[in-house]
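User: Can you help me understand a structure? I only have the sequence.
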Amino acid sequence: MAELINNQVLWTSLLATFLAQLFKVFLVLLTERRWALDRMLETGGMPSSHSAAVTALATGIGLNYGWGSPIFAVSTVFAAIVMYDATGIRRAAGMQAQLINELIDELAHLFDEGFQPQVLKTLLGHTYPQVLVGAALGISTGLVVFL
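Assistant: Let's start by predicting it. Here is the structure, written out as C-alpha cells:
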C-alpha cells in the first residue's frame, strides 16, 4: 500500500487530470459567468484531461526511468493513441450525436405522444487545440512535480 501512496508518477498523472477538469470549470466561469461544477466530471472540452493525464504520465516516466527506457516508449505510444482517439473517433461520435439530437428535435412531431427520446451526449471528443493544451498542461505538470 505504501508503494501505491508513494507512486509519484501515478499521482502526477491524476493531478494533471484534476487540473484540466478544474480549468474547464473556470473557463465556463470566465466565458459564461456561471459556475459549472458538473464540468469536473464530464469528458470533452478545453483542455483535454485525457491528454493531460497521459502526457503527465509519459513525462514522469521519462524523467524517472530515462527517455530511452522501454517503459517511456510504451507510455508515449499509449499517449499518442489516446490523443489520436480523442480528436478522431470520440470527436466524430460527438458530432454524430449532435446531428441525431437535431434530427430528433426536427422530427419530434412524428413521435408517439409520451415518447421522449433520450438526448445524446455531444461533448465527447476534442479539437486539436484542446488536445494540444491538455498535452501542454500534462507535460508542464510532470516537469513541475519532478523537477
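Now, to help you interpret it: The CA atoms of residues 17 and 94 lie 21 Å apart. The first helix runs from residue 2 to 5. Let me know which part you'd like to focus on.
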